[in-house]
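As the next step, I needed to go through one protein, both as residues and as discrete backbone shape codes, included below for the reader:
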Amino acid sequence: MLKISVIIPALNPDNRLNKLIQDLNEIKGTTRIVNNIIVIDDGSDKIHQSIFQQLESLPIKNLKVLHHEYNKGKGAALKTGFKYIENNLPDVDGIATMDSDGQHTVSALNSCLNKFSLNPNNLVIGVRHFTNEIPFRSQFGNILTSRLVKILTHQNISDTQTGLRIIPISYIDDLITFPGDRFEFEFDMLLQAKKHNIKVVEQPIPTIYIDGNKSSHFRVIRDSIAIYARFLKFAASGFISFIVDIVLFYLVLFIIGNHILNSILIATIVSRVLSSIVNYSINHRVVFNNSGSKTFIKYGCLFVVQMFASGFLTDALTTLLPFSNGQLMPTIAKMIVDFALFIISYQIQRDFIFKEVPKHV
């Protein structure tokens, strides 16, 4: 029989948390698969401390309530629970995470546990069915992050914001070291799973939203920026390099005074060399966190191919645009070509040049 610990992060919860704990204790009494329940008080205010006092007074042997002195974020609360389990519960096979606001039921947890028992090395997530009755911010955020995960990892994950997950114990050491202490941590858990040889498996669960999901502590602007930080860093790196490239390309053409093929190639080489130095430095150190091996050689090969592709394709596209004696049309052609090459380049850099070597083989 698998041994599962349940972690529930909570910030200013109501009586629904007590009801969830009691329901969990009932299934813990009928099946040994749920062995321990850990509640993390993530800096709740004094008004809500009575909820945790009630929990601590319950006659539940394997219930543990941990407290943060101040609000650190959902990611930090989960990490606190992970560390507690690592230090005190060494025989655990997996860790279930649930929200404290009534969105997750015991029956939904059981369905995920059944899926997890088929392969305890998989990360099982409880996915909700989104309809027009779901709050707009939940629909929009989930669709956006799902599309982003597909682009970045080639994984089809239909519900990236679900808090109901069964995490294999082999993934916990890595998760504790992940940056980010708020909602971006859960997103990064899915984003990085493939790199650590963790397969994400979906299990349908009921969709429950109470009072329009008012109890959610998700801050739309701040937390969205944190979630998309990895993608935004790469986009910013590309944008900076793009500006350097375009400005230098235009200046070189201006100095040469024409835009025949040889001139376009010369301008492309000069601008691309300098902008690629900027791009490589930012991507290697900031975007991909120094991941990969022999990155300079690999990036150099990509640079040469991309540089000549940019030159020849820009020249070809320039001939299709309205005729102009100035530098405007070649520059516009280059912007179009380089945007397409940017998308291709990202795929190559992520999957080959800066590919992170998994810790678990």
Confidence is low (pLDDT under 50) at residues 217-221. The CA atoms of residues 258 and 334 lie 15 Å apart. The two ends are 25 Å apart (CA to CA). The chain is about 55% helix and 10% strand.
